[in-house]
Amino acid sequence: MATGNEVGPAGPFEINDGTIELQSRRGGSACPCSYVSTKCTSTIDGNTVDCGDIVVNGTAATAGGVDNYPDVTLDYTMELCNYNDYPMEFSRSQSSEDGESNYMLFWFNDPWPDRTYIEEERFCEIGQGCGEAVRLEKQTCLSIPQRSVTTTTRRSEYFMQAQLNGPLVDENTGRRVDDGFCYAYAFDPISFRYDYGDGECRVNTEISCKVVDSNGVATEESCAERIEAMNRGEEAIEIFDSIIEGRACNNNARDSFLQYEQCNFKVSTYERNRRGRLRRVTVKYDDRFVPPDNVANPATPMRPNECQEFSYEKEIDPRQPNFHQINIQGMLFNNFNGNMSFFRDKDCHDFSFENLPIVTVEPIVIPEAPSDSPSISQTPSSKPSMSMKPSPTPSVSPSKSMIGKGGKGGKGSNSWSYSYKSPTNGGSRTRVLNARNRKK
């Protein structure tokens, strides 16, 4: 068990080398001070940099057609902290697939989706037959102190993850304190960058939603503008036809191979899955971009200045959530025909999305006769449409549209799943864990 004296401060704190480390925290007022942290740095040419800022000279690594990707040493720490005034018991999660909810992990995928762990610490939890209630004492941290691992840059992706989960309990009675339940989580994908002398990879995406008139012709009025006019009382609150268009382009003067499964155009529907989330219609890029099983026959790349364009006709119910997005992602690992520039297209990433506003006012209907039609039109459209099964309006209804962009440099890319097969194994696995106290 981890025991000790006071630790602190509760928040960002100073590490021995003088850098400031931000910890991830979640928990309500009943458990305000539970934290986890992950940190990875490397010393490059005498300078300490974040592992995600490591840039590999791909030109030197492939000179003369020789695979000469350098090794790199990663220095890392992970920590679970209970800064509260009561101990915290480790408890199992009801939502995760395996139930495990207190851990510190550092791994890479090889081969996908199998994990090879550099660090793997999972803690015995209540209900696992541990023989005692496993807990983290008050004002105490469990930590993996700074460790180092030397690994290859021929693998570009590594992942750090930590989680803390459980209730606060009274030291004497063992009962929960004010229903206090603690939860903290951190996920840190580490993605090396590579310079092959090509310059920045320039890809771009665009997305739009336009109102379609009674003749089936797209207008210049956006779907967001129509719904905002409804909220101002300038338009009747009713379902309207729309066309949603997406465009993804390779703006480079060179070919770019695509990560096919991550390149798509998505439009929300009004149907919900078993978790209550809105289903999406997903349209893929052309099949010619699919990598073959035999890497001797490479997939067709996206040519210089080539674009993929999409359109989808949809009946918009302004009382319901509506969103759409388009993504483009370059291939994360490419060894076609003995090519050594494995990660040349890895940073070719961009996406665009739009969340339409939702009607926040109810229509005022003054019927002239009992047989009058309701104010919301349900007239079938001659165009293909989505299911119009109504669902309750969300309690939070945005009155403005949300438009977003993301892509290169890790911006907005952490939600992607990575799916290349790394060609090598490597890394060491340790199970050394220290319980330590933070001094003020």
Write the layout of secondary structure elements.
Elements: E1 13-14, E2 20-21, E3 24-27, E4 34-44, E5 47-50, E6 55-57, H1 58-61, E7 71-82, E8 88-89, E9 103-109, E10 115-122, E11 135-136, E12 140-152, E13 157-169, E14 176-191, E15 193-195, E16 203-212, E17 218-222, H2 223-231, E18 240-250, E19 264-272, E20 278-284, E21 307-316, E22 323-329, E23 349-355, E24 402-407, E25 434-436
Parallel strand pairs: 6-15
Antiparallel strand pairs: 1-2, 3-4, 3-14, 4-5, 4-7, 7-12, 8-11, 9-10, 9-13, 12-25, 13-14, 16-17, 16-18, 18-21, 19-20, 19-22, 22-23, 23-24
Keyword list:
440 residues, five-stranded antiparallel β-sheet, 2 helices, 2 domains, 3% helix, mainly beta, ten-stranded antiparallel β-sheet, flat, Immunoglobulin-like, disordered N terminus, single chain, disordered C terminus, 25 strands
